[in-house]
Task: structure prediction
Amino acid sequence: MSLLTLDRATIRFGGLVAVNDVSFMIHEGDLFGLIGPNGAGKTTCFNLITGVYKPTSGDVRFDGRSIRGLRPSAIAALGIARTFQNIRLFSALSVLENVVIGGFLRHRCTLTEALCLLPRSIKETDDLVVEAMKLIESFNLTEFTNWRSSDLSYGDQRRVEIARALATRPKLLLLDEPAAGMNPQEKQELMAQIRRLRDEFGQTILLIEHDMKVVMGICEKIVVLDHGAEIAAGSPEEIRCDPKVIEAYLGEPV
Amino acid sequence: MAAATVTPSFAPGRYVLVRLLSFLLVAAIAFVVERQVVPSLNNYDATLIVRSLLYASLAVSLNLINGITGQFSVGHAAFFLVGAYVSGYVTRNYFDSQDPLLWITGMTVVGGVAAAIAGIVVGLPSLRLRGDYLAVATLGFGEIIRIIVQNQDGKNLSFGGLDLGGAFGLNKIDKLTHVWHVVVLFILIVALCRNLLKTSHGLSFLAVREDELAAEATGVNTTRTKVVAFVLGAAMAGMVGTLFAHHEGFITPVTFDMSTSFLILTMVVIGGTGSITGAALAGAALKLLEEALRKIDQIPAIDLLGYIVSALLVLLLVKTLRRSRFGENGRHVFLSLLGAVALAGAVVKGLALSGDADSGYVRFVGWAMLAVGSLSILFIVVALVRRAGATVGERMLTGLGWAGALIALVGCYVHWFTGVSVVIKVSVIAMLLALAAFTTLSGHGRRGMPAFGAVVALFGSLIVVKMPVTMALHSVPFIEENLKDTLYSPNNLRMAIFAFLLVVVMLVRPIGVLGHHEFSWDLVKRMFGMKHKQQEIAV
Result:
């Protein structure tokens, strides 16, 4: 059974159809790529899935139920986490605090317990801190644990954002241009990391990326959008040779 | 914040012990305040303590909405009002003097709940608003509540004929508040906010402040968080209002108008948005400053004008010198010379005053000025000779810095013998001591000495320049004719003074004096070098 299904999802902003009749399915364990020229509607697609926008028509189903019209925090609670194209870390907070907030979903203690600092609230916070430290370590960010997140380099900030998303223990991870602004070596490391996430932890990932090396290198299935519409779908090899994709996006066969 | 230093092992024994000790400590503080401190104070001093603590609590409660959750609310006085009026009304009409402590506790809850309901009322519609728009909405809400109350005089315009005394307010509320109630409430409010920030719940509030979209995508229900912040902040303000009403005995709508909201907001912004410590300190300090201003003599308008003009002149000169061929060094030398002139002036003035036969106090001040002035000049000479600093200007400023420290010290001593309330004296001295301890222990002191010297020099230059400027102003016929007899009372200028303070803080440090920093034991340990910074990372 598919984990995420976009069923003829469409969104209009006034006269502009940003996403037009897009359907695809992501299965558990997929490493799925979403590509297309600038303005093709990729990020809007992410915003549809995560509940920032509500589709004008069509449906988004996740894990067997429709998530159309749910608020983003509820969708996050169901198991979809994302990163942003232009990094949106909690910039005044430390790296550790950023990642701990990712685990906030999973903690059960009530606000009253937190205000009175009852044992459970301390324990749960401690547990989240320990988990966050592990995540931070796995991203090789340990030395920056107590840094203000805005003081980190661009590439490191991206990795903190991924760590924060992973801290929610998502069933589906959405990465919006994770390699943007990274140098070739950082890109290599990132690719290795993403693949490891999938191979070792079975993480399902949907990613938007402009760097063809990254996309072709790690994605197993790719959907190509242009002007809001889906123009092709398939394996990297099929996409590479698809004349429509070449015309609209790639420019020449890669 | 706290989470960075949490040790991942939870020890039940230590937990119980710490809780027990904290409760004992609070009880002990309450006991000492009630039995030892209050009996030794007169009524006015006790009132000062109550008011400064109440406003500090208000600032901390607004900090929860403004600083921690980042929702710019400008109507905090309304929640304060709701708490005060609801509890005051109930007490006035239903109080039986059987168990005052139980009654005031109950009323605090009633006031808190009433204000919390007001918090929901303003919180829910405000959810769609951000930044400036939210500020305008809350401002309007605050005024609406006050004006409704102002019209509740039991006559035609009142809802349901409810009589809240209209513009004259509620009077004859039983004065049930003791000083220790206020102390305990203050500690309670600070503790609640601090506890919140120690857990991941607190982080979700901070996340809403930092980035709403990202917080929502990470699973934080921003709507709920914002409403909770409004309700909590309002409830705290309502509790403060209850104690306020039962302390003053009468309340009028004017006490809760827009200027009060702005005063509380100023406290939060000056203290550091998001810092509980900052809000509490700034709250107490600004309230005490407001009370102290009532006691200061009136200032002739021309003197005031003289200060403003000379401040502009000095700033202009400093600015020009920086760009002139004398450069940075020339500016430092110039500033220090003006400062030194001021010190020389102090010596001369001291000589004159110390010969005064009539008043012992004046003679005493004279001697103090004489001694401080000469010692300070000596400091500058020593700094010049010892070559403390790269340039001549820096050396002179370092000397002036030390002189400033000496002036502050002697100033504290002299200030002790003035007629100002003992509460204000103690607070001023405590804050100066804390500042001195922090700067010296954290190592900012030595590095900051020339900068501190520059501040001293600026003030010194102000005094020097002000004299001729005032004389010149007196000789301008237009000003002399119109302002000759005008006096300003500092009390009436208080909002202007706060506004000025706010502008200065915003220019120098836009995130407020303390920024996001909190007082914590880790900070103290770090300052004394007991804990190396690296250790923290190895949690």
